[in-house]
Design a protein that fits this description.
The chain is mainly beta. Helix content is 13%, strand content 38%. The strands form 7 sheets. Strands 6, 9, 12, 14, 16, 17, 18, 19, 20, 21 and 22 form an 11-stranded antiparallel sheet that branches. Strands 4, 5, 7, 8, 10, 11 and 13 form a 7-stranded mixed sheet that branches. The longest helix has 13 residues.
């Protein structure tokens, strides 16, 4: 790659072209759940082949892990924050919530009057010049007695090149950082899924395991602070300790809290691979936070696409999916050591909802983060299972370290929701498996966990049941994987869905020149991050294709030797025009493949031309497009140039 930097900002001549408890089968049951249902989702096009069984696959160490969202920085760069203090949450309230059936509730919604709207939030933000020439401000939120806080940041207007950081004042040198455009994309994904209320407009910050959380906002140069429209009207007060601890903190964390008959999954090496497919889920619905269990699934091509299976009564909307955090290898390092493995890894960037249905209580997601190296993409069996088959459950009861349960598939059953957290099951046919344990049990937090036939292949997901340490043989009910597979999951898990996978296009902002750089190459991304500190990494801009096998159109890349900026075009005619008339533009490569026309779930890429710098700017976010049009008068809007995608 050539040197991206050039101090010159000469103007270009012109723009080219303008779980839970049950009483017994047949009686009223209590569901492990919350939320509604959403049948459908975007189904991949094409006819899926007749594939009904796939084995598991291990994530290679060499797999690109993306760029970590956790950054280190000097405490000298930390702005003095405004301070918002919330009192303690009533103990009686937290006790009642924690004992509820369904997904294990671990966090409660709290209103924040001091930052209830944009005007009051802007009053709290005390701006000062940043090291990059922009403006920076911060607000510290404190909730006495909390084990963690998730801030519900409502974003209505924000520059894409803004940087948002989340950290605790006690550890201000380690921050979670993301860009404005990344947050805008998450919100756009919510809105496109029909989430038009406040939940759809909310970005939930990751849980840092602290009773104090600071939100810092840094605006790029030239952005008036009054144009920012954000607020924090709600927080989720985490009242159970879910943090991944240091050795000194182990005795005070959420470990070994599940029932005494629970079996440590680390004692069963036969299922060593399957253990690595299971993650503890932490997610926020409304402004309350819950724990469930989910499982990573392989597809027929072992493509590494992070498909993730859980329960519809855990997550059933895109807004909930966007809040998802996953804890991997969250188990004991050795059998019954009652400590946490040092290999535990956290991912915090949410997921895309592909399918959700209460017919089998299934939710199917695609994680936005790459799972950690060593993660196992579990195999599955979409055939109807034999009654009497041996089955294994791997799950996180009460959010505890990974546990195992062993039993048999007793019969089929028909289950129907009876309102709230109650459901009824009866008969010997239907969309659910009735399972009876011989060892172990499940609890709230086990919801959504997979049922493995023979301990090897996924055949169901936990809906609810009445089993406990005092009644192990009481029934549990699992949604049938084969029914969900034939309804929709085959469209992603069968071979036709795994071909021609989209690739991320990464975005950078050069604070010196005000220009953006885009690349679909992870190695080039990492080279820029390592070599050019003036290029601020802004995460994934959109998704396209890496090659033309999908029948898509090439997007061409040029380098302007005069201004140091790059130009991208989805038009072969425009490419030829630039080559013929602008010698300072060096044609480089086909950067990626997209579409010149709408369709196939694609969204337009909007293009702007900066009259002062001669640089172009591209965004897939309609909200960012509108912000640029309103605020940055030097950027002339040129309309949609080609079409790409907001998710894989």
């Amino acid at each position: 790659m050539h040197d991206l930097i050039d101090s010159s900002e000469e103007k270009m001549e012109k723009s080219f072209f303008a779980r839970g408890v049950v009483s017994f089968i047949g009686a009223m049951l209590l569901l492990a759940g919350c939320g509604g249902s959403q049948d459908g989702g975007t189904v991949a096009s094409g006819q899926a082949p007749a594939i009904t069984k796939v084995d598991g696959w291990v994530q290679p160490v060499s797999t690109d892990q993306g760029v970590a969202s956790i950054k280190s920085r000097s405490v000298l760069d930390v702005p003095k924050p405004a301070r918002v203090v919330l009192g303690e949450l009533a103990q009686a309230k937290t006790s009642a919530m924690a004992s509820a059936v369904g997904p294990r509730q671990v966090g409660a919604a709290r209103d924040v009057s001091a930052t209830k709207d944009s005007a009051s939030t802007l009053q709290q933000l005390k701006w000062k010049p940043s090291a990059t020439g922009g403006q920076v401000a911060a607000i510290s939120f404190v909730a006495d007695g909390a084990h963690g806080l998730r801030l519900g940041v409502v974003v209505k207007q924000l520059p894409g090149s803004a940087q948002l950081r989340v950290y605790s004042q006690a550890k201000a040198d380690t921050v979670f950082q993301t860009s404005g455009q990344d947050i805008l994309q998450r919100i756009q994904r919510n809105i496109q899924a029909g989430e038009t209320g406040v939940d759809g407009q909310t970005w939930w910050t990751p849980d840092l395991g602290s009773n104090e959380v600071t939100l810092e906002v840094e605006l790029p140069p030239g952005t008036p602070t009054g144009t920012v429209d954000i607020s924090v009207p709600r927080v989720s007060h985490i009242f159970e300790n879910l943090s991944i601890p240091t050795d000194e903190e182990l005795q005070s964390t959420k470990i070994n809290e599940s029932a005494s008959c629970q079996l440590d999954a680390s004692c069963y090496e036969t299922y060593a691979s399957q253990r690595n497919a299971v993650a503890r889920m932490i997610f926020t619905s409304g402004a309350s936070t819950y724990v469930c269990t989910g499982t990573l699934l392989n597809d027929s091509q072992s493509s590494g696409t992070p498909y993730f299976l859980s329960a519809n009564h855990c997550i059933s909307t895109q807004a909930e999916a966007s809040t998802l955090q996953t804890d991997w290898f969250y188990r004991a390092p050795t059998c019954n050591s009652r400590t946490l493995s040092s290999t535990t890894a956290k991912r915090v960037n949410g997921a895309t909802l592909l399918y959700a249905s209460d017919t089998t209580d299934t939710v199917f997601l695609r994680l936005n983060d790459t799972p950690p190296a060593g993660a196992f993409f579990a195999g599955w069996d979409a055939g109807t299972q034999a009654i009497g088959a041996s089955v294994v459950g791997l799950h996180h009861p009460r959010g505890d370290l990974l546990k195992a349960s062993f039993g048999t598939l007793n019969s089929l059953s028909t289950c129907t929701t009876a309102g709230g957290t109650q459901f009824q099951c009866s008969g010997t046919t239907g969309n659910y498996y009735r399972v009876n344990w011989s060892q172990g049990t499940t609890e709230g937090g086990s919801s959504g966990s997979a049922l493995f036939k023979g301990g090897t292949h996924v055949v169901g997901t936990l809906y609810g049941g009445s089993a406990s340490c005092t009644s192990i043989a009481s029934p549990e009910f699992y949604g049938r994987f084969d029914v969900a597979y034939n309804a929709a999951l085959k469209n992603w898990l069968a071979s036709g869905a795994a071909t021609a996978a989209r690739t991320a296009v990464y975005r950078f902002y050069n604070g010196k020149t005000g220009a953006h750089f885009y690349t679909a190459s992870p190695s080039e991304r990492d080279y820029v991050i390592r070599t050019f500190p003036e290029f601020g990494y802004e995460n994934i801009a959109f998704y396209a294709y890496a090659d033309a096998s999908s029948g898509k159109d090439p997007v061409f890349r040029f380098y302007n030797a005069t201004s140091g900026a790059h130009f991208y075009s989805g038009s072969a005619a425009e490419r030829d025009y630039v080559i013929a008339n602008f010698p300072q533009f060096r044609y480089e490569v086909v950067s990626w493949y997209a579409q010149t026309n709408a369709g196939n779930g694609a969204s337009p890429i909007f293009r702007f031309y900066n009259d002062k710098t001669g640089a172009h700017f591209y965004t897939i976010s309609a909200a960012e497009r509108d912000f640029v049009i309103q605020v940055h008068k030097d950027f002339r809007y040129e309309g949609p140039m080609y079409y790409a995608w907001t998710s894989l």
